[in-house]
Amino acid sequence: MAILVLGGAGYIGSHTVYELIDAGKDVVIADNLETGHVEAVHPKAVFYEGDIRDRAFVDSVFDRETIEGVIHFAANSLVGESMTDPLKYYDNNLCGTKVLLESMVAHGIDKIVFSSTAATYGEPERVPILETDPTEPTNCYGETKLSMEKMFKWTGRAHGLRFVSLRYFNACGAHVSGKIGEAHSPESHLIPLILQVPGGQREHISIFGDDYDTKDGTCVRDYIHVTDLAQAHILAMDYLMQGGESSIFNLGNGVGFTVKEVIDTARVVTGHPIPAEVAPRRDGDPAQLIASSEKAKNILGWKPKHADLKHIIETAWNWHKTHPKGFVKEK
Ligand code: UFG
Predict the structure, then answer these.
(1) 117 Cβ inside 6 Å of ligand 1
(2) Closest CA to 55 of 104, 103, 94, 11
(3) Is the confidence at residue 328, as pLDDT, over 90?
(4) Residue 291 pLDDT more than 80?
(5) Residue nearest to atom 25 of ligand 1 (CA)
(6) Which of the 8 DSSP states describes residue 129?
(7) Nearest CA residue ID for atom 5, ligand 1
(8) 232 pocket-lining for ligand 1 (C-beta < 6 Å)
(9) pTM for this predicted structure
(10) How far is the CA of 196 from the centre of ligand 1 (A)?
(11) What dihedral do alpha carbons 33, 34, 36, 38 form, nearest 10°?
């Protein structure tokens, strides 16, 4: 019996596969390699290259492998792109999930752990954010993830499928081995962009707005290590295997850091001055996003092990300085 990881060649997917294999599980990966990297595929996993919108492909994976549960990362996830190309997000994220669910129902596979996001909440009314707080996404990416959660809910009611949706806050860091890490193209996330400065690929980091109502005027986020996120997927799958009912969990450290604090910590880690320049606010950025993860701690028994921001940035720096072009080999 194996776990099928859709999008297992991507950033959070590949880290989850590494943890699953370390935990002794059999893993099958399906990934279309549109944003994932074949180099991130764990050598002990069975790998199928294909797209979840392709019913024949998805059916063929379920027909050939004995799958006990699915972990679903296969989606587009860039907030900015989702605003300029919303239909791409509806097509891949929603249509892909529809095809996946049709195939799961047809094959009697009834457990799915889903990669969701804090973007489902939009601008929060208060922090820390609870799972029961209002969900009013301010971007199309968050809207599609929220719709995917609802697709699981209604499909579950009709066909007996159970799901766990994990709403991540700011995923960051890299595997402690340095073998895999974050490699987006184009990169839009704060920590990898900061580290491009000591990496010699960028002159300075831009701070998107310093007039927010926060302690130093810059946005506050809850940075959570990718391996801690990965562990939560294993716990969530165990929970479903033990008969747990469908549920939604936030995943964050419950501590917020400002953009300036993150830059300062990266200066300490890298020993580089990392020049920073204030730039206009980025459209759609909430001032503060901080998770309450009490529910995941209480019900799943989740306990982040890499919560220290300095340690998180050290793991990221260890990856980026050895892989300045991500998975592209240096010529
Ligand atoms: N930022 C900068 N300069 C940069 C890049 C980012 O100041 O060059 C700031 C942003 O304005 C934001 C913070 O750094 O305040 C973090 O930005 P990221 O782009 O790293 O992350 P986001 O908080 O925008 O996005 C994250 C996830 C998304 C998710 C979103 C939920 O990456 O997948 O949280 O709102 F949708």
Answers:
(1) yes
(2) 103
(3) no
(4) yes
(5) 170
(6) B
(7) 190
(8) no
(9) 0.97
(10) 16
(11) 30
Task: Classify residue 112 as exposed, middle or buried by CB count within 10 Å of its CB (0-12, 13-18, 19+).
Answer: buried
pLDDT tens-digit map of 129-148: 999 999 999 999 999 999 99
pLDDT at 331 over 60: no
Per DSSP, which regions of the chain are E strands?
2-6, 26-31, 46-49, 67-72, 111-117, 162-168, 170-172, 205-208, 220-221, 223-225, 247-251, 257-258, 276-279
Backbone angles phi, psi at 153, to 5 degrees: -60, -50
List the one residue out of 29, 39, 68, 34 whose CA is nearest residue 162. Answer: 68
Token duo for residue 62: 């379920």
Structure tokens given for 15: 């880290």
Unique residue bearing structure tokens 């969900």: 135
Ligand 1: which of 139, 166, 190, 277 to mutate, judged by most atoms within 8 Å of the beta carbon?
190
Mean local confidence (pLDDT), 271-293: 95
Ligand 1 atom at minimal distance to the Cα of residue 208: 7
pLDDT at residue 126, as a whole number:
95
Q: State the residue for tokens 């193209």.
A: 185
Cα 142 to middle of ligand 1, angstroms: 13
Confidence band (pLDDT; 50, 70, 90) for 296? very high
